[in-house]
Task: inverse folding
């Protein structure tokens, strides 16, 4: 397949943006996980108080850490929203799907047709011309020998009746139906399936 430059650019144009967004999204997850862990610690301290233990100092310390963690999470979420907003604004100059469609149907298709398809079409035209001429040659060869064949057949028929009753022998025609190779519907169906008929050798690029 021909190298498609615009498609490669399309596939890689968001790589940097996606990496930056992923970093900020990971920061939000990390901050949220840290806050969740601190809240779990605070809950454990509260449960300890039901056993008669005084956890006031520990709770005060954990409360300060929770407040800090909440601020960190809020900051991370704010930055992540900013990154997403920036990414959306940066999409204005990117390669769109419509750009791909237009390039495919324009320059890219024209290059493929002229450099790859045209030689195949020329081979098809030459093969069609050679095949049809060969069929005409067969018909002309058959027509050339037909009078002699018919004459011999008539003589043989009379001879069989007169001299060989019950043991007829007739001349064989020069060309039989099995001699003529035809391209059948089944052959074309196999081509549609990406296969060649039995006995046909694959020759990439033609002879």
Result:
């Amino acid at each position: 397949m021909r190298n498609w430059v615009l498609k490669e650019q399309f596939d890689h144009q968001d790589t940097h943006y996606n990496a930056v967004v992923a970093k900020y999204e990971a920061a939000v997850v990390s901050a949220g996980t840290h806050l969740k862990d601190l809240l779990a610690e605070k809950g454990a301290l509260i449960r300890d108080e039901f056993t008669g233990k005084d956890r006031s100092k520990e709770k005060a310390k954990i409360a300060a850490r929770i407040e800090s963690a909440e601020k960190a999470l809020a900051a991370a979420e704010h930055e992540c929203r900013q990154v997403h907003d920036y990414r959306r604004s940066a999409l204005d100059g990117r390669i769109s799907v419509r750009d791909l469609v237009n390039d495919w149907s324009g320059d890219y298709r024209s290059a493929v047709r002229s450099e790859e398809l045209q030689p195949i079409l020329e081979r098809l035209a030459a093969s069609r011309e050679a095949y049809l001429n060969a069929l005409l040659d067969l018909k002309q060869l058959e027509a050339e020998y037909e009078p002699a064949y018919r004459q011999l057949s008539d003589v043989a028929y009379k001879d069989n009746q007169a001299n060989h009753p019950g043991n007829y022998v007739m001349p064989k025609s020069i060309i039989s139906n099995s001699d003529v190779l035809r391209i059948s519907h089944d052959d074309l169906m196999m081509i549609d399936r990406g296969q060649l008929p039995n006995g046909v050798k694959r020759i990439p690029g033609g002879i």
Summary: The chain has five helices and no strands. The mean pLDDT is 91.
